[in-house]
């Protein structure tokens, strides 16, 4: 997904961190590639000196936007960060326990969608990616055609190992009302791409879709990762499922010498 990246390796791979980067005007800068929410240090971060880690990063990259993952909260001991919203739901407790935590209006919307006799089914990931690109292109112009192509190749590969899957909600006549593309590992299901048509919104199809995915995987030792949002409406929607916040952390710095530090990429 990244044009270039280096890895910060601590000791004998006790902890690692991917640092994607680009160049502009001959200056290397770190960024977060499209469709990736959190990076940061993976491994035993708590036992290391964060100031030493940050010095290593800042000596390699003079200008950066970094997203440290939820387990990197201790980095705040070394630098001021901005907390970002992510929401998760524990699937291991089983569907009945999860459903008992749903907000009343969510339950009503799911019942409304159920009465529409809509169908929940498997889909090819490419359809979900194509729909997402169509619906979201105008809202996210920074995501290029090349980025969608890169993710399509990745999804095709991950589908073979069940690490990427798509689910849809359709009418009886086959119209797609809502579709989601999800990544999956041995710890989480990631709600990566989610789109709903106007007709689907009228029928509360996205409520039905997410509830169906949660029910399908409930009882497994997994977290459902809603991927969060800083938009109050989106956050409120996810919280209706009983999701709880698990923040990650944004760090921006500009160590370029003057007057280069006045440049914006």
Quick structural summary:
The chain has helices at residues 50-60, 95-100, 104-114, 125-136, 145-159, 198-202, 205-217, 232-239; strands at residues 4-10, 15-24, 27-30, 41-43, 63-68, 82-84, 87-90, 119-123, 164-170, 176-184, 188-196, 223-225, 244-245, 248-254.
Note down, in words, how this protein is organized.
The chain is α+β, with helices and mostly antiparallel strands. It has helices spanning 50-60, 95-100, 104-114, 125-136, 145-159, 198-202, 205-217, 232-239; strands at residues 4-10, 15-24, 27-30, 41-43, 63-68, 82-84, 87-90, 119-123, 164-170, 176-184, 188-196, 223-225, 244-245, 248-254. The protein has two domains: 4-85 and 247-262, no CATH class; 87-245, Gcn5-related N-acetyltransferase (GNAT) (Aminopeptidase, 3-Layer(aba) Sandwich). Helix content is 31%, strand content 30%. α4 (125-136) runs antiparallel to α5. The relative contact order is 0.18.
Roughly how many Å is the radius of gyration?
20 Å
Question: What sort of overall outline do the alpha carbons produce when their principal axes are compared?
Answer: globular
CATH topology of the largest domain: Aminopeptidase
Largest beta-sheet characterization: 7 strands, mixed
Q: Helical segment tally?
A: 8
How many domain regions?
A: 2
Order of helices and strands: EEEEHEEEHHEHHEEEHHEHEE
Q: What average pLDDT do the residues reach?
A: 92
Return the structural class. alpha+beta
Strand content: 25-35%
According to CATH, what is the class of the largest domain?
A: Alpha Beta
Using the 3D structure, state the CATH architecture of the largest domain: 3-Layer(aba) Sandwich
CATH superfamily of the largest domain: Gcn5-related N-acetyltransferase (GNAT)
Helix share bin: 25-40%
First CA to last CA: what distance? Answer: 20 Å
* Low-pLDDT windows of residues: none
Query: Can you count the beta strands?
Result: 14
